[in-house]
């Protein structure tokens, strides 16, 4: 069974940048749509961005458009989320996810995500 492991979170001041990474193992990364989600304290988990497997089309939550960039490196089985101009409302636990097929999971951006990483904390605060 596949495994996803996030890294790169931390504490950053408003206006700063962070890059999250997600390492995949146990499945062929390039075959699946991939995404980033986040969950703020007391709130539901929300989709932040996704990238398709077919043509690398990208999708973003409106509030992060122009600030966040999703990308992947198929050769390294890595997914990234470059986050610029960070705001306090971007604070949360960030999860990477994969649409590995099936009829269960979280539906967002046209994909159904059912494989999840353990999460990485991002805190934006002065």
Helices and strands in order:
Elements: E1 3-7, E2 10-12, E3 18-25, E4 33-39, E5 46-51, E6 58-60, E7 68-73, E8 78-83, E9 92-99, E10 106-108, E11 111-113, E12 115-116, E13 120-124
Parallel strand pairs: 2-13
Antiparallel strand pairs: 1-3, 3-8, 4-5, 4-9, 5-6, 7-8, 9-12, 9-13, 10-11
* Shape descriptor: globular
Q: Roughly how much helix do the residues carry, as a percent range? A: under 10%
Count every helix, treating DSSP H or I runs of 4 or more residues as helices. 0
Cα distance, first to last residue?
A: 40 Å
Task: Describe, in plain words, how this protein is organized in 3D.
The protein is mainly beta and 126 residues long. 0% of the residues lie in helices and 52% in strands. The chain contains no helices and 13 strands. It has strands at residues 3-7, 10-12, 18-25, 33-39, 46-51, 58-60, 68-73, 78-83, 92-99, 106-108, 111-113, 115-116, 120-124. The termini are far apart.
Provide key terms for this protein:
126 residues; seven-stranded mixed β-sheet; four-stranded antiparallel β-sheet; 13 strands
Provide a compact summary of the structure.
Helices cover 0% and strands 52% of the residues.
């Amino acid at each position: 069974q596949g495994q996803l492991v996030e890294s790169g979170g931390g504490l950053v001041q408003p206006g700063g940048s962070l890059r999250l990474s997600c390492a995949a193992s146990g499945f062929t990364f390039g075959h699946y749509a991939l995404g980033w989600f986040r969950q703020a304290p007391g709130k539901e988990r929300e989709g932040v961005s996704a990238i398709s497997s077919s043509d690398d089309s990208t999708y973003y939550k409106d509030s992060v458009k122009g600030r966040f960039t999703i990308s992947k490196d198929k050769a390294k089985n890595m997914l990234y989320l470059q986050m610029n101009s960070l705001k306090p409302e971007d604070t949360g636990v960030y999860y990477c996810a994969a649409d590995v097929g099936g009829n269960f999971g979280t539906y967002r951006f046209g994909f159904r995500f059912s494989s999840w990483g353990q999460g990485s904390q991002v805190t934006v605060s002065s």
